[in-house]
Write a structure and sequence with these properties.
By secondary structure, the protein is α/β, with parallel strands linked by helices. The protein has two domains: about 55-160 and about 265-310, Rossmann fold (3-Layer(aba) Sandwich); about 175-260, DNA polymerase, domain 1 (Orthogonal Bundle), CATH 1.10.150.170. Strands 3-2-1-4-5 form a five-stranded parallel beta sheet, with helices on both faces. Mean pLDDT is about 85; it is low at about 15-50. The chain has helices at about 5-20, 35-40, 55-65, 85-90, 105-115, 130-135, 155-160, 185-190, 190-200, 205-220, 230-240, 250-260, 265-280, 290-305, and strands at about 75, 95-100, 120-125, 145-150, 280-285. Helix content is about 45%, strand content about 10%.
Amino acid sequence: MKGICEFLQSLQCESAMNERMKSNAPWHSDTNSNERCDRNVTHCADRAPRLHIPAMVKEVVHYLACYDKPSGIFVDLTVGTGGHAEAILEAAPRATLIGIDRDESSLEVASERLARFGNRVVLIHGDLRDVQRLLAWCGVEEVDGCLIDPGMSLWQVDQARGFSFRIPAELDMRYDRSQRLTARELVNTLSVEQLTHLFEMAGERRNRARNIAKAIAQARSQHSIETTTQLAAIIADAVKAKRHQRIHPATKPFMALRMAVNDEADALERGTKAALHVLRIGGRIVVLTYQSIEDRIVKRILQQHSQHISTRLPSPFPESREGEPPP
């Protein structure tokens, strides 16, 4: 059987290099950006998008040693809407931050959020795997700290771009709206075996993953699956889900599709390795992981580089009052 990785690569490689080369310049807002980013999207009309609240902000600032490097250079490889970046810039008052993200819509929000820091911020529409090339374009060879916070944000969920089974939308799930591959294409083209493998990688039990994959194949044989609500209903019916169970049965399949569409596992692996190469001596990297597959990837990379880097936490995270730097 043709491996799912090879299949996804064949779908993605056609435009990947061209799109990455477009990321050679800092991102700038323009009057047509909303039209470009919102094309073919059904918006959620009953609420405004929530500004993403970043995870473990104090810990990130502490372990990047921002207070000890007030004039340092930091790179946020997944800057998103700029929550962590804002905290880093506040903690290091003369620091420069370079923010990279694949989502132009998120960069629009980050640009507004970080505008008060002026030329201390450079935002780039690009891929974390290309961090060395993107930093070189900025004239930077080494940095004092790197941050990677993978996955989607609440702000992206609320954009009705197919990330959530709770919000009616087209099956898109792309971070970079310029890439060709979407969740709709995967759902309607992957074989039962490929879908089963995809769902297993996200933590579904094999029998359950296969039942979901079969149900998808049966449904699409009658008509293509186009929306989040269609897919969620198919999954719920396939596993005979109870109406008010704690975790919706579509949770892991949707996560699996999102990670496949955006090639998240490979991006995290290659992005982490690339980040290690741009750290100067004494620099620090912080990677937040939320899924077991992410945790395994990062731990394996750190073990592989254990002769050259310290994987021990530099110091315990101290208790401190709001707004005060840790001692």
